[in-house]
Write a structure and sequence with these properties.
repeat, Immunoglobulin-like, 1 helix, Ig_V-set, FN3_sf, rod-shaped, 488 residues, mainly beta
């Protein structure tokens, strides 16, 4: 009697469902539909309609409409009744919601981040994930990057790096349909210097530019410094010698009219709210030699002295010494020796006669250029006499205040000699004083004097050449011995 009345019959929630039930009989049957043991009353719920073919239509079927429907066929003329129970299942399309639409993480710190979606529906939906539209498989056992929970509602990303930044979509799917939700994973990254390059320039060259590039999120700011100073990010010196320009992830430091003192280490530092990174680069400046040193050097016959020629050059320079156009050392100047270091050349001269005094030439040459410096070897003289300012006498001592000699003779004063005698006495007493101690206060003290006695004192200075001229004598009188008052 029932030809086509399958069970169960499944429908999608919200659609117009038609429950199929074909009854075959020689006489036209009367079809009655029942739900939960009761007749379906069409007037009571307008959503229920019996179609002309006796199928039961439920408009906008709901989950609450689910259950057993009885299709009952009656042939009243024969008093026959038969029925077929049909199980109606209402499938509910999935709904899915991400717990967070934006998730932040920091790269390269060994962090893990978990993305979570909550889904509902009937049958229970299955979950899958995509990254920027590409499926993330849940079957790769060797995938240590992505880990799924048992129901795949949670996706854990391990060891987050910048490449993990993407739009992740969780997809909930069942036989009633599918729905998805998006989660944007924002990955912040510490700055990393990605490009620096050493540079070489020549002195007085028009300009040279040092470049520093960095990655990082947020975009890092880049600053510059040398080993001795910080350079402002917007620095531009009045003469335009140094200019900093920055754009996005790139900063450049341009030096104009290159000077040899610009050579050295330059450090760029990239910083953002996550951290910072620094890298050094080196500017090599090639320049012709530059010479320094005391032009006048004093000595005396038989006294060895060094004439120092300091050289600054890059590449390193070859240094030569000349005397009257003749290259030194030579057979004509056996009393001359030369010692070289990377930063200076020393001409050691031991004068034999006045002929050894005069001009000496230091010449330095490299492939950039050359420079010469003339030195004068001067015959040192003994110092002039000190000048006595005043004498402060006591009963047995006296402090002699003096000014240093106006002329030292070209070489340092080593000692002072004080001579004194009482008036009427012929022989002078004397004492030597170290120049460093005497010069600190400009005072020497003579001792062993007699009270209430008139004395004369004079001073002379000694340098390496010898004892200089003695000063004019200054007279003074010592104080009487102070008497001590004793009480009875």
């Amino acid at each position: 009697m029932f030809k086509n009345a399958p069970t169960p019959q499944e429908f999608k929630e919200g659609e117009d469902a038609v429950i199929v039930c074909d009854v075959v009989s020689s006489l036209p049957p009367t079809i009655i539909w029942k739900h939960k043991g009761r007749d379906v009353i069409l007037k009571k719920d307008v959503r229920f309609i019996v179609l002309s073919n006796n199928y039961l239509q439920i408009r906008g079927i709901k989950k609450t409409d689910e259950g057993t429907y009885r299709c009952e066929g009656r042939i009243l003329a024969r008093g026959e009744i038969n029925f077929k129970d049909i199980q109606v299942i209402v499938n509910v399309p999935p709904t899915v919601q991400a717990r967070q639409s934006i998730v932040n993480a920091t790269a390269n710190l060994g962090q893990s981040v978990t993305l979570v979606c909550d889904a509902d529906g009937f049958p229970e939906p299955t979950m899958s994930w995509t990254k920027d539209g590409e499926p993330i498989e849940n079957e790769e056992e060797d995938d240590e990057k992505h880990i799924f929970s048992d129901d795949s509602s949670e996706l854990t990303i391990r060891n987050v790096d910048k490449n993990d930044e993407a739009e992740y979509v969780c997809i909930a799917e069942n036989k009633a349909g599918e729905q998805d939700a998006s989660i944007h994973l924002k990955v912040f990254a510490k700055p990393k210097i990605t490009y620096v390059e050493n540079q070489t320039a020549m002195e007085l060259e028009e300009q040279v530019t040092l470049t520093c590039e960095a990655s990082g999120d947020p975009i890092p700011s880049i600053t510059w410094r040398t080993s001795t100073r910080n350079i402002s990010s917007e620095e531009k010196t009045l003469d335009g010698h140094m200019v900093v320009r920055s754009h996005a992830r790139v900063s450049s430091l341009t030096l104009k009219s290159i000077q040899y003192t610009d050579a050295g280490e330059y450090i760029c530092t990239a910083s953002n709210t996550i951290g910072q990174d620094s890298q050094s680069m080196y500017l090599e400046v090639q320049y012709a030699p530059k010479l320094q040193g005391p032009v006048a050097v004093y000595t005396w016959e038989g006294n060895q002295v060094n004439i120092t020629c300091e050289v600054f050059a890059y590449p390193s320079a070859t240094i030569s010494w000349f005397r009257d156009g003749q290259l030194l050392p030579s057979s004509n100047y056996s009393n001359i020796k030369i010692y070289n270091t990377p930063s200076a050349s020393y001409l050691e001269v031991t004068p034999d006669s006045e002929n050894d005094f005069g001009n000496y030439n230091c010449t330095a040459v490299n492939r950039i250029g050359q420079e010469s410096l003339e030195f004068i070897l001067v015959q040192a003289d003994t110092p002039s006499s000190p000048s006595i300012d005043r004498v402060e006498p006591y009963s047995s001592t006296a402090q002699v205040q003096f000014d240093e000699p106006e002329a030292t003779g070209g070489v340092p004063i080593l000692k002072y000699k004080a001579e004194w005698k009482s008036l009427g006495e012929e022989a002078w007493h004397s004492k030597w004083y170290d120049a460093k101690e005497a010069n600190m206060e400009g005072i020497v003290t003579i001792m062993g004097l007699k009270p209430e006695t008139r004395y004369a004192v004079r001073l002379a200075a000694l340098n390496g050449k010898g004892l200089g001229e003695i000063s004019a004598a200054t007279e003074f009188k010592t104080q009487p011995v102070r008497k001590t008052l004793c009480s009875d």
